[in-house]
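Our preliminary data section would be incomplete without showing what the modeling component actually yields. Below, a chain of 313 amino acids is followed by its predicted structure, encoded as tokens that our downstream tools consume directly.
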Amino acid sequence: MTLIRPLAALAILAASAFPAHAADAVFPPGLRLGMVPLVGLSTAKTFPGFESEDGSVKVLITELPPAAYGEVVSAFNSNPAGANGVKQDKIETPAGLAYFTTESGKADDTPVKRYSMIVPGAGFSGYVAVQIPENATKIYTDEAVRQMFASATTRRQVSAEEQIALMPFKITDLADFKDIRTLAPGSSIILADGDESTGYESRPFMILGLIGATPQAADDRARFAQEAALQIPGVRESRITMSEPIRINGQQGFETRIDGVSGKDKVPVTVVQWIRFSSGGASLRIIASAPRDRWQAAFTRFRAVRDGIQPKG
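Predicted structure:
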């Protein structure tokens, strides 16, 4: 598509069939956006959303930053007629006014129809991408997809237990962090004293996640850890104050600390990055930040969370 193409690229796929009532909305695990899946669709096994039994019809549901909704609304308003064969429309939903597009395309060599929808949420934008093979469009019609979109609804929050259960590791100590938010289902999560509405930077928070292949040689790991720490998003004027190898739960790791400023108010912060290296597969990366005047108390909590992370199974 033209207008929501960047969002669709972030999402990849999605799908449809006739919905029932808003009360029957299904929320993919860890997400605040849900809807009534169309007939013949069930919870997808490899992505958040729904799919047909043969996997050809797909509905992907995800969350985007809150500003994404306004950007799409502006794009619609500036070009209400659409372009390049992309049809634009909007519909009222329990979540709010949704904007969506319809277009034809190809998935490999298969002709498909694609739909993309965005709705407002509290602290996020809900996004849905639907992909339907052309040979299934007599069942999954434009009207069927529209009805599914019309059932879109949001929930205020997702329980910490539900979000943590999606992670590939156990978090056994939350160290009194109350705001738990999935950043990427199954791969990263934030624990914070602040929240999306007030901002995270002015209070202690942690991001726990997995990263791909990491270096095996000690010197390479040191360089990798330092470069990663200096590229932490949102931290500016960064200066490394400590960087050294450590053991984390019996595994080789690296601790790097930086001082910098964060957020629009340029809050002076100290940030620690821990990487627990894995000889094969993904390594654990923890980023923990606190205003400099709260660092000592926050660091004790950060370590409690770090040391309580255990493998599943």
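The first strand starts at residue 33 and ends at 34. The chain has two domains: 5-154, 160-311. Preliminary results of this kind motivate Aim 1 of the renewal.
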